[in-house]
């Protein structure tokens, strides 16, 4: 079995160019937002990750011309020396800062074989159309540019190495236009590289936190290129995928809240009465941010309520006991008729970065009829689901801060 992770020859911004290059992940912005963010920034990685912004408005983001445009932009940044590739395989220390929150991880190449064998564990279903999009993007660029966010159980030896490296001068230390700080250090000393590889290989598993479609598409691309290469050795660069791994105790999951368009035939009083059959209900004079698992905030008809699930309704199953599952099984489905939150257009999801004020805004505007604030899913719960080979409901986790696209890319030789 190949090692769990390995170093890579990272393709990175040339010295002094990172601030003009790095961009939010491709799936955080829509096309209009990306076009606005990239305006006046010819080196922004949005020209590679959201290349439709350089084509006529309204073009289908999956049009072949879009992938070709992204590849052309990628080649331009390389040809002009905006992006340069390290001469030898390295690991990189990656530190993220968001306000007082700091997390320090390692940029590495995760093993496709380990992913296929579920040693790099997943907790979400993927959609074929989204996988297809990433396969086309990787194939067009012949590179992986969107890192997969991984978690690992705390490892003091790894933490000590990363902290020692991060005491030195950074290759890049920039603050993006959203206020998030991104700092990068290179690890190329052979003994340190070998030690990190050993420490990670001793771990039972790594856990995908964000990037299920990116990892699934990397596996598909590897299978395709492997089949085309009769002389494959298993050491080809396509046998690994771009990752950033952080210790679970440094990662931050925010709430991922729900808004529903109508009350499914109920009036507000009737809905409250039905909710009281499965939850204790108390009015709140201020936005009701949940303080513990099993507690929910609800904004209905201009007023906040605090809901607490009755303990007898909390099962032992690692998926069914999640707050997102409890809300779905005891309120959204039976009372509001949301059978499948993946496909029902009556429900929408609001990341915790937008605050509870966004929930009030969506309801008060008349766009939505009711909103629910959830307690954030824990990393322990995420890992328990993955270890049980189960999947979480959609929109269960919202990780912040987000990794930057363009800080390190993985070229497939």
Account of the protein in words:
The protein has 13 helices and 21 strands. It folds into two domains: 5-252 and 400-411, no CATH class; 256-375, Conserved hypothetical protein from pyrococcus furiosus pfu- 392566-001, domain 2 (2-Layer Sandwich). Helices cover 31% and strands 25% of the residues. The protein is globular and about 65 Å long. The chain has 413 residues and is an alpha+beta fold. The protein has helices spanning 18-21, 31-38, 46-49, 64-79, 112-116, 128-141, 156-166, 190-201, 212-227, 268-275, 323-332, 355-364, 379-387; strands spanning 5-6, 10-13, 83-85, 91-98, 101-111, 120-121, 143-144, 148-152, 172-175, 181-187, 206-210, 240-247, 253-254, 256-260, 279-284, 295-300, 303-309, 347-351, 370-374, 398-399, 409-411. The longest helix is centred in the N-terminal third of the chain and has 16 residues, at 64-79. The strands form four sheets. Strands 1, 4, 5, 6, 8, 9, 10, 11 and 12 form a nine-stranded mixed β-sheet that branches. A six-stranded antiparallel β-sheet has the order 15-17-16-19-14-18, sandwiched between helices. A four-stranded antiparallel β-sheet has the order 3-2-21-7. Helix 4 packs parallel to helix 6 and helix 6 (128-141) packs across helix 9. Strand 4 and strand 5 (101-111) form a beta hairpin.
